[in-house]
Amino acid sequence: MTILTDQTFDKAYEAHNKAEMVEFFATWCPHCKKMEPVVAKLAQEYAGKISILTVDVDQAPLASRKFGISGVPTFLFVKNGKVVESLAGEYTESELKEQLKALL
Question: How many domains does the chain contain in total?
Fold first, then answer.
């Protein structure tokens, strides 16, 4: 998985406008570290179906502001370029899968 910055965010976000999960995280966040293997697993499982993007809020303050991110981790579920759901905090793999299935 590629970690996006302000320089790479817009291009990656617009390239996958059908279905995306965008995770906003921080390297210093213990909750984000717990979510890292879950997000990596989902990225493999949904490869080719749903784009999983990860955004380091410290490296992408403009993208974070654009979506009103105030806490990490935050997951945005995007369909056809529109945010359809936003979740903040730790979630189980099954909880995230339910949101991903809704995008398909």
Answer: 1
